[in-house]
Write a structure and sequence with these properties.
Oligomer: homodimer
Shape of chain A: globular
CATH topology of chain A: Stationary-phase Survival Protein Sure Homolog, Chain: A
Number of strands of chain A: 13
Helix content of chain A: 25-40%
Largest sheet of chain A: 9 strands, mixed
Distance between the termini of chain A: 58 Å
Order of helices and strands of chain A: EHEEEHEHHEHEEEEEEHEH
Strand order of the largest sheet of chain A: 3-4-2-1-5-6-7-13-8
Number of domains of chain A: 1
């Protein structure tokens, strides 16, 4: 079997269980380099750190065994995209590129419009910008210690496909897993990014000195009744896979505007 | 003439010249509410603040005159997307929604893959999620005090079209202006998000205590020789307009994967 070189990151940070599960899974496919945020970076989208300096720390290093690839784990004090850039930088310094980027396993859904704000998906987009086959994995549970059995089972099926056939250049995959026991998951479906948005987004409070401040909160408003919207598939017990694109141009709108706007 | 209700934000922060230029321009179209980051937020993409609390401060308030709409300026301690959420929250509290969201005028290019990392574009995406016609404006100069004459001239032409015809739901516009005197700008062109990426992305330094740290840097690598790639149009003296989409699904890749992957 070919040993793959796999870069792993996440947005919940180095100490989250999800990234450890991802690293353990991917060691069954090859050598794993984890470059993950030192602190939680949820909701960081594709942000990069332009105002502050960044530190890299090697946290752990394990050799390959007969059954598992090698593992090296770095903490990096930046965003998920910063972590991908640093991971790729490490590979480039070794005269090579990763075969695959895995971002996650995220604790919480990245379906529908959550994919816009998601650091998990920001990291996967960055991998695709480098032309690395890239995949974001998210379990729809905010339990810090959830049951990953279904995620691991179905991730293997998806990884086998992905590593066999690849995906088109400039595409990255957003995979979301329902928070269900393995036997209750109905299967895998290709999906589109569901249409929706958040409402009631601020919790206004008063601090001990009498000044107002805000927490961002919100409730998801489902604006998509299509069966193959990712969040609807997940609600119905399926694993959803949405292919996302780095090139975010709407080519149809170019043609439409060319007809009605004349400069 | 109809007076429009316009929400303005940016990612360079409340004190940048660009957002003041945008507010002044938009007051000729209607009443302007600025909710801009208290501190610079370049490169923040569509990040939202989940780990920290946020403060809102009213900075300035001017009544409408015969020729200009009213102006109210708020500083908000979050990201550009946080600012849009708060701006929309203010409007919702008043029982209405903005007619238009303007993000910018950014100091620096947001063409090609810069649009992925851009806080200016993250804010415009957020406007589109709320179904508000939304536009990001960026001048390809990092001079903090550049010549905005060409930007203002061509922004008026684009705003007139946008407010007359609207854009399709779920679309937002990424407009980039070349850093040229007005008379040297050749015109406006619809464009696609140019293909490219950054290389040599880290400046590694040693701190006074002998420990290594990094700054993110990089040089743009142009991977697109199409004439209608946005960064190429700008280099050739044109104002570029790219329609971006909130729904980032690649529907062709769904069909391709459906054929080759069977679950």
């Amino acid at each position: 079997m070919k040993l793959f070189e796999i870069l792993v990151t996440n947005d919940d940070g180095l100490n989250a269980r999800g990234v450890k599960e991802a690293a353990a899974l991917m060691r069954t496919y090859g050598n794993v380099t984890v470059v993950a945020p030192s602190e939680p970076q949820s909701g960081k989208s594709a942000a990069i750190s332009l105002e502050n300096t960044l530190r890299l720390n090697l946290v752990e290093s394990l050799s390959a065994s007969e059954e598992l690839g090698s593992l090296r784990i770095y903490g990096f004090t930046g965003t998920p995209v910063d972590c991908v850039k640093m991971g790729v930088n490490l590979f480039i310094g070794e005269g090579r590129m990763p075969d695959l980027l895995v971002s996650g396993i995220n604790h919480g859904s990245n379906a529908s419009v959550a994919s816009v704000y998601s650091g998990t998906l920001g990291a996967a987009a960055e991998g695709a910008i480098y032309a690395i086959p890239s995949i974001g994995l998210s379990l729809c549970s905010h339990n810090p210690d959830p049951d990953f059995t279904g995620v691991i089972h179905y991730s293997r099926i998806i990884m086998d496909k992905l590593l066999e056939t690849g995906i088109s250049r400039g595409i990255y995959l957003n995979v979301n897993f329902p928070n269900l026991p393995l036997e209750e998951i109905k299967g895998i479906k290709l999906a589109h990014q569901g249409h929706g948005r958040w409402i009631r987004e601020f919790d206004k409070r008063t601090d001990p000195r009498g000044r107002e401040y805000y927490w961002i909160i919100g409730r998801f408003l489902n604006l998509d009744d299509a069966q193959d919207a990712d969040h609807n598939l997940i609600d119905n017990g399926y694993v959803s896979i949405v292919p996302h694109r780095v090139d975010n141009t709407d080519y149809q709108e170019i043609e439409r505007l060319r007809d009605i706007w004349s400069f």
